[in-house]
Write a structure and sequence with these properties.
With 211 residues, the chain is mainly α. Helices cover 73% and strands 0% of the residues. The chain has two domains: 53 residues, Arc Repressor Mutant, subunit A, CATH 1.10.10.60; 127 residues. The longest helix has 30 residues.
């Protein structure tokens, strides 16, 4: 008598479910970190919001600081692809633009879209940093990464021969105007549209930085 034929294990379906769970967990975490605060949000809260068990959250992200770090990476990139921001096609196209005015104008549009995704989360991390060591470490890492990115933009601006200030001043101006504070105050508090903000930021950079 022949034995029963075993059905092949469908790992793709299980992987798809795991990916969907991760997406829902990240979305829930970002929403709660922003609306409730990082310190007041628990893994249990995130699990309930995502519709999964707390054990699923721990299995996917290990702990809340790791979840915050991943939520930030996804917010910055706009997706869950592990591609550094500076290597993304939109920025590579900006680096290839020979006219510094056009490059800075385009960078302002890119940055405005990034602020739409990240500014609220950045403010939440900043608010928690005074009392939560994990949030403080994350805030320092965010600022360090952004400074490195703006330094790359400043080096590229020097290469155009059109920069009217020092490389260091260009880096610092870009860094100080891209942390989300200006976007939050002008767009969310004063009611500017993203389009108006991007146009203003581009003009500010061109006037301040281009020879």
């Amino acid at each position: 008598m022949s034995g029963a034929v075993k059905r092949p294990y469908d790992s793709s379906r299980r992987q798809a479910q795991a990916n969907e769970n991760r997406r829902r967990i990240l979305a829930a975490a970002q929403d709660l970190f922003v609306t409730r605060g990082y310190g007041r949000t628990t893994i249990t809260d995130i699990a309930a919001e995502a519709g999964v068990a707390p054990e699923t959250v721990y299995a996917a992200f290990k702990n809340k600081p790791a979840l915050l770090h991943r939520a930030w990476d996804v917010a910055v990139g706009g997706d869950d692809q592990d591609v550094p921001v500076l290597e993304r096609p939109e920025l590579r196209a900006l680096f290839a633009e020979p006219d510094l005015r056009a490059r800075l104008t385009g960078l302002a549009v890119f940055n405005t879209a990034a602020m739409r995704r990240t500014a609220r989360l950045h403010l939440a991390v900043r608010g928690a940093a005074a009392s939560d060591p994990a949030a403080a470490a994350m805030l320092a890492e965010i600022d360090r990464q952004r400074l490195e990115s703006m330094a790359e933009h400043a080096r590229a601006a020097v290469a155009t021969g059109q920069l009217g200030v020092s490389e260091e001043e260009c880096r610092d101006v870009l860094w100080s105007t891209t942390d989300g504070t200006l976007w939050h105050r002008l767009v969310e508090q004063r009611g500017w549209s993203d389009e108006r903000y991007a146009a203003w930021l581009g003009r500010l950079w061109v006037a301040s930085l281009v020879a």
